[in-house]
């Protein structure tokens, strides 16, 4: 990406953050205190980057992209607040979570506040089809969380269940925002479907990459090592390993997880070659992203998006 393109993206992200701050401004100072804290710890704004990079190439007006990105980030942010409550998580992006810092009651209320502000943002889009698409995404995110809780309680997960959860909890919002770009430009149903599939492939690669990062040092990933395992979540490398074990061996691995013996679990995954299997699945999804991207982006602009995809989706 050239210096000018980097600058354009940086300016866009600053405008999205300013828009989010404006949308979430409240007369209640306690709410504003949490908002200020949350908006200084918002992560990499991957969804906004996708909206800008693809939307700008396809020809969507910048003002529309800012509105769409703000709504998408608020949906994502509200789900993170509730996820941390459900998971009883203390740390997110190396900082205390809202529930850790302000307690469960204020965290629940703040998550609800963000949802109401999300719908306010959707109203500002002035496009019912886009609003409907993002509302569907929000519904599926909740459905995915319910499925994940059910699977977690059952203490087992198949590959089919895993991919269903990550589609609803992660990929659906990527899919939705890309489809919304196409809706804004009045693209054909076939093009909308291609954008949807691009988003699903991106979300799949993104989640598998996040699964792999659970076993890397936090200073490398910005995510606490073994965070998912400590919350009882069975990620793709673990699932792939368990699939090759007999029931007794599976029980032994699950006992190691419950006992917090995460280094031992990592060694078992290494020995089973399941990390490499997971990387292969991630790389297939990245290849699909690139293939779908080539259908929408001019040849002389493809290299930048290829680099973005690989840098974003490889741990």
Keywords for this entry:
315 residues, mainly alpha, Farnesyl Diphosphate Synthase, 2 domains, two-stranded antiparallel sheet, 16 helices, 78% helix, globular
Describe the overall structure:
- With 315 residues, the protein is mainly α.
- It folds into 2 domains: 1-126, Farnesyl Diphosphate Synthase; 128-315, Farnesyl Diphosphate Synthase (Orthogonal Bundle), CATH 1.10.600.10.
- The chain is 78% helix and 1% strand.
- The chain contains 16 helices and 2 strands.
- It has helices spanning 3-23, 29-39, 46-58, 62-87, 98-102, 104-124, 128-154, 159-184, 189-213, 218-221, 227-230, 236-243, 247-258, 262-272, 274-293, 302-313, and strands spanning 91-92, 95-96.
- α1 (3-23) crosses α3 (46-58), α7 (128-154) runs antiparallel to α8 and α12 crosses α15.
- The chain is globular, with a radius of gyration of 20 Å.
- The model has no long low-confidence stretch (mean pLDDT 91).
């Amino acid at each position: 990406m050239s210096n000018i393109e980097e600058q354009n993206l940086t300016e866009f992200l600053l405008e999205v953050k300013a828009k989010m701050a404006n949308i979430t401004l409240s007369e209640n100072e306690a709410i504003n205190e949490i908002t200020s804290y949350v908006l200084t710890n918002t992560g990499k704004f991957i969804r906004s980057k996708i909206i800008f990079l693809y939307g700008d190439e396809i020809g969507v007006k910048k003002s529309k992209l800012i509105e769409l990105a703000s709504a998408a980030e608020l949906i994502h942010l509200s789900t993170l607040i509730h996820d941390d409550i459900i998971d009883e998580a203390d740390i997110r992006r190396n900082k205390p979570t809202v529930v850790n810092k302000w307690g469960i009651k204020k965290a629940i209320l703040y998550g609800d506040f963000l949802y109401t502000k999300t719908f306010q943002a959707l109203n500002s889009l002035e496009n019912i089809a886009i609003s409907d698409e993002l509302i569907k995404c929000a519904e599926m995110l909740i459905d995915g969380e319910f499925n994940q809780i059910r699977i977690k309680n059952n203490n087992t997960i198949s590959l089919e269940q895993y991919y269903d959860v990550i589609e609803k909890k992660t990929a659906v919002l990527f899919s939705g925002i890309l489809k919304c770009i196409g809706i804004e430009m009045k693209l054909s149903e076939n093009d909308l479907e291609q954008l949807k599939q691009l988003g699903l492939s991106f979300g799949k690669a993104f989640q598998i990459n996040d699964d792999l990062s659970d076993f890397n040092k936090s200073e490398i990933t910005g995510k606490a090592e073994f965070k998912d395992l400590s919350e009882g979540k069975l990620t793709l490398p673990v699932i792939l390993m368990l699939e090759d074990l007999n029931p007794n061996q599976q029980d032994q691995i699950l006992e190691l997880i419950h006992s917090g013996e995460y280094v031992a679990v990592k060694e078992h995954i290494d020995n089973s070659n399941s990390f490499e299997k997971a990387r292969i699945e991630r790389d297939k999804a990245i290849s699909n992203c690139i293939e779908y991207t080539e259908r929408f982006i001019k040849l002389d602009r493809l290299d930048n998006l290829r680099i973005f995809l690989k840098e974003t989706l490889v741990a």
